[in-house]
Amino acid sequence: MTFVPAPPHADSAAVLRAGLWMLGAVVSFSSMAVAGRAVSFELDTFEIMMYRSVVGFVFVLGVARITGHARSITLRSPGLHLVRNVSHFTGQNLWFYAITMIPLAQVFALEFTAPLWVLVLSPLLLGERMTRVRALAAIIGFSGILIVARPTAETVNAGTLAAAAAAIGFAGSILATKRLTRTESLTCILFWMTGTQIVFGLVCAGVDGDIALPSPASLPWLVVIGCAGLMAHVCLTTALSIAPATVVTPVDFLRLPLIAVIGLMVYGEAIDAWVLIGAGVIFGANYLNLWVETRKRYRT
User: Fold this and answer.
1) What's the pTM value of the predicted model, to 2 decimals?
2) Distance between CA atoms of residues 238 and 8, nearest Å
3) Domain range annotation of the chain
4) Measured between alpha carbons, how far is 211 from 96 in angstroms, rounded to an integer?
5) What pLDDT score was predicted for residue 7?
6) In terms of Cα–Cα distance, which of 190, 155, 162 is closest to 40?
7) Longest dimension (CA), the chain
């Protein structure tokens, strides 16, 4: 769990490594969606987040002690950690709510406005350059999302609003993570993520004086949520430390076709032609951005 800062001019191999790390995040986030829906029938979103964070915290502490990286946990950036974790906690709770209300493919499609927020805001907050290709990729990707989601007055409900709002929280988390990777280790970021969100979850879940205990059937799913959620952030944070956020985050679009297939096979959620077309447009935007970035770094 060591942190290696990205070189100022990452080569094509670095871009490829970042893409592979993001593929790990894609699998982890998809696993978490399935597990989250499985436990949603007996636990609310705050309880899910609390138990997820407990699993992650234990795992982070164990690995940190075994590997000797516990000493990399610092108090250098408490404000930035707080911003990151409040953003993520808010977004994740809205996300867990949305996956119980609308089809998984629609949740993921609306969530994918987060990379578009990153593409737009990273030049302002991270100092990364907004090129014409990145702007074009953002526009194409957003068009693909509209094709998949096809929002209308009839389809806008609590689930779609929650998924859309979750994307804003995730974008804030991504941007804060990128800032943190400049000075903090991955162990430090994950320690404060899981630790503070245990407190957030405990307070929010216990505000009504009733925190439900998971049943034996739900325990394995909670372990999956905790481990998958943690690995997703390991993959995401590592990828962000290797390549710019505007290069890394669009790879996450690949979750859409994957979760659409999972929704069809596990939950019988039909995939129509518009979902396939939209997924193709989104993939095209990802490929364009990554191909141009890779060739540019190869030439330099």
Assistant:
1) 0.80
2) 16
3) 12-299
4) 17
5) 44
6) 162
7) 61
